[in-house]
Amino acid sequence: MSKDLYEILGVDRGAAEGDIKKAYRRLAMKYHPDRNKEAGAETKFKEIQGAYAILSDAGKKQQYDRFGTVDFGGAGGGPNPFEGFAGGGFGDIFNELFGGAGGNPFGGGEAGDPNAPRRGRDIQVSIPLELEEAVNGCVKKVSIAATGECDDCGGSGRTASSRTVTCRNCDGAGAVRKQVAFISIQETCRFCQGQGTMIKNPCPACKGQGRVRKRSTHEIKIPPGVGHGDEVPSGRSGEPGLNGGPPGRMFVQVNIKPHEIFERHQGDLYCQITIPFTTAALGGVIKVPTLEGSASAKIPPSFQPGQHIRLKGKGVLDYRSRNKGDLICKVAIETPRSLNARQKELLQELDESFAANSAKNTPAAADWLKKAKKFFAP
Hints:
Layout: H1 5-9, H2 17-31, H3 41-55, H4 58-67, H5 90-98, H6 100-103, E1 123-129, H7 131-136, E2 138-149, E3 163-166, E4 175-180, E5 183-188, E6 197-200, E7 211-222, E8 231-232, E9 250-256, E10 263-265, E11 268-276, H8 277-282, E12 284-290, E13 293-299, E14 308-311, E15 327-334, H9 341-356, H10 358-361, H11 363-372
Parallel strand pairs: 1-9, 11-15
Antiparallel strand pairs: 2-7, 3-6, 4-5, 8-9, 10-11, 12-13, 14-15
Helix pairs in contact: 2-3
Binding site for Zn(2+) 1: 150, 153, 203, 206
Domain CR-type: 137-215
Pfam family, one: DnaJ_CXXCXGXG
């Protein structure tokens, strides 16, 4: 093991004790075997445990910083920072930081007690919604695949011919000790799942586990005004716990689909409308779409590109703030196309009339021309 301990935890050599602990907590949660089933996660987790065991101890940390090794037997001194270190006791470190059975985010019990109650896994559900469904609220059906009680054996894992035998892998201890590099760590027996016993002639449907993967359909009530990414209460539990532990939780997250007209930002709605240049010049009243039907909006005379109009209270009721927003319309001004001869003639006359008093009729264009003249060829 030649990796730098600080590199393992992702902290600088001058990191404070609190920063080291925070880094350990974050990485331990990420790579804990109960949560991360990827190849190599278990080895990574043990490596993180070993690094923290040294850097969290002032004496060991001082020796490592000075000599690059932790040689408690006096025979070390090589480049291996773990040489002479026996390891062990890392479950206690984890429970100290995460609070044991009550605070362990993975539902595990105390170290060395594989039969302790374990909280069931949480279930994350994402529900796609149309904007109108999110604004008005609705009821959606979702299909969920999760672990649940075996219907064939009622969760017992047994049949009429089943009997209990001692697990041969752990000799009834429920746990085995495994040596990985410099670390000796106790693990729950994977054959009996920490029970110390196994079922002879188990239920064929669940293979003695009492739990099977199955699909179920649930109705979820979506309250009005939810936004993209909001979590809403489902009133349902996640997967059942182990050894009498509580069930996990079900998190329902809202995923709002893009809308063809509106964009939503909290309680406000945004849309783009297009008006002819004559309306922009003369002003007028136009129809604007809203989620509650059409509404009238007033365009003031001499309306300029880049301006917008706001319709108070025509947005949506925000799920979090419970305030209703506005509808903001970005206005595009369209220049006429395919002009006939008469229209071109009228526009030419209009343009000539503007030239007579350009500072008043087209002040922006007149100001630009004044600034640009010095760049024109004489």
